[in-house]
From TrEMBL:
GO terms for biological process: cobalamin metabolic process. The lineage of its organism: Eukaryota, Metazoa, Chordata, Craniata, Vertebrata. Its EC number is 1.16.1.6, 2.5.1.151. This is Cyanocobalamin reductase / alkylcobalamin dealkylase. InterPro entries: MMACHC. It comes from Psilopogon haemacephalus. GO terms for molecular function: cobalamin binding; cyanocobalamin reductase (cyanide-eliminating) (NADP+) activity; demethylase activity; FAD binding.
Amino acid sequence: MEERVAERLRGALGPFGFEVHAFKVGWYNAVLQPAFHLPYPDDTLAFVVLSTPSMFDKAFKPFINKERLKIISDPVDQCVSHHLSRVKEKFPDQKVDVIFDYEILPSRKPKFLAQTAAHVAGAAYYYQRKDVKLDPWGKKKIYGVCIHPKYGGWFAIRGLLLFPDIQVLLLKQPSPIDCVSTEEKRIKLLEQFNFHWKDARYRDIIEVKERYSEEQKAYFATPPAERFRLLGLTREAQ
């Protein structure tokens, strides 16, 4: 059942530069405090959705050209919402719940922890402080970061697709590929991500097969308030 659903999702989202990776809700809930649990039974089928570097040309630019007059919020979020919401049409007989990476609860907590979801689904390895044996940071706050085995840091986690009526008891959990395997490189990765993230060096911690285009880099390097102008949109559209 899981493979049939996955094939249909890949057919719907793959041509637009998205990846989908299956997981069971129980895998995710098992590694988090109850406050962050997803409110579904452990065997519920879910998918984490990533955008790859090609999403910008395959999904985002066509979306902007077509929906120019309807852009009322962050253009990338609106593009992702458009494509993930359309997935429901592919499953007319199934309930599909969508949670986006930008959604928050009334408590201001995120609705899901994106990097944890990517890790438990085997999509990308979530490198954290605990993965470094000789911690050099003392009392400094150090945030973790996911690295994709093909795209390094040149990707984004966009949302979850959950199928409440599908239980997958026998789904086997894949391990994410540990592509930053040495202590030295892990320290370098976390240093670059926490203290020099703007220069994007952490994204190239491994040799990548594809990265963001110069146009895409320029877009994401532009402050959000100025991105409308970059796209030729006016603030009146917002």
